[in-house]
């Protein structure tokens, strides 16, 4: 960090540095799922049997690069004055782990709350047809589809991601950590695979790929599962009933199969 703060300005680190970090983490974590799908590796853990065509995958990558450079980068540059005004800094010393942890937890909770309601609004008839349907072009999601969306949606739901840091003015290292964790979470939620080591197997409140994949498989009026990270918002407001019912049926079917064998 010492090297970065002595060789680059706050603006360069917060805008261009954040963009480079985002692109690196996003594509390095998302591209392997394209390879898994094309090669048919670990297919027993794939949630849906249907695969995307290479053309569909390439279309996603092309659009993502266009959106990232045409929307994300300008947004990061334009939001820098807000973060600076709220107290964000990149200088040493680094914040304590307690401060970092408390801020990250706050960001996850706030982002999930804002995202849930924003996502539900996007599933109203007009907004779905004209905006959110772009994201749902992929009924069988893979990691990179997590950020494949209409530019208006990128701005709309992107607010959920930046509102926490914007109002707390964190150290840049905390902002970068939040960005990395959020990117990894959304890529995992769209990856299309449910592994034995998936976080949702160990964290009861965590949604994960199985939870969000259900959202992509259904029609917009019946999908539910609107939360980004956790499951409690959907549980509280009853928008996960279809998913829970399906899980119960599958569980009962598995029990019957085990008894018969």
Automatic annotation (TrEMBL):
Gene Ontology cellular component list: membrane
Subcellular location: Membrane
GO molecular function: iron ion binding; oxidoreductase activity
Transmembrane annotation, as ranges: 12-36, 64-83, 95-117, 154-179
Residues spanning the signal sequence: none
Keywords assigned by UniProt, alphabetized: Membrane, Transmembrane, Transmembrane helix
GO annotation terms (biological process): lipid biosynthetic process
Pfam families: FA_hydroxylase
Highest taxon of the lineage: Eukaryota
Domain Fatty acid hydroxylase, residue spans: 105-239
Family matches, as InterPro entries: Fatty_acid_hydroxylase, Sterol_Desaturase_Related
UniProt family annotation: Belongs to the sterol desaturase family.
Name of this chain's protein: Fatty acid hydroxylase
């Amino acid at each position: 960090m010492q090297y970065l703060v002595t060789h680059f300005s706050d603006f360069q680190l917060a805008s261009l540095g954040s963009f480079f970090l985002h692109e690196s983490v996003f594509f390095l974590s998302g591209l392997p799922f394209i390879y898994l799908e094309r090669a048919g590796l670990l297919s027993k853990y794939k949630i849906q049997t249907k695969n995307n065509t290479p053309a569909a995958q390439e279309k996603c990558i092309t659009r993502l690069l266009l959106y990232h450079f045409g929307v994300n980068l300008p947004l990061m540059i334009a939001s820098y004055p807000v973060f600076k005004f709220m107290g964000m800094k990149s200088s040493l010393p680094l914040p304590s782990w307690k401060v970092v942890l408390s801020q990250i937890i706050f960001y996850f909770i706030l982002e999930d709350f804002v995202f849930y309601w924003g996502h539900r609004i996007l599933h109203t008839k007009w907004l779905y047809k004209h905006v959110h349907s772009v994201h749902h072009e992929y009924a069988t999601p893979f990691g990179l589809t997590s950020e494949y969306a209409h530019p208006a949606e990128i701005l709309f739901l992107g607010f959920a991601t930046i509102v926490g840091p914007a109002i707390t003015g964190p150290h840049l290292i905390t902002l970068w950590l939040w960005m990395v964790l959020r990117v990894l979470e959304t890529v995992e939620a769209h990856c299309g695979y449910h592994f034995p080591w998936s976080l949702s197997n160990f964290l009861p409140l965590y949604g994960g790929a199985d939870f969000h994949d259900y959202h992509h498989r259904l029609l917009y009026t019946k999908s539910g599962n609107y939360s980004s990270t956790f499951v409690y918002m959907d549980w509280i407001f009853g928008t996960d009933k279809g998913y829970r019912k399906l899980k119960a049926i599958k569980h009962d079917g598995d029990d019957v199969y085990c008894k018969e064998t």
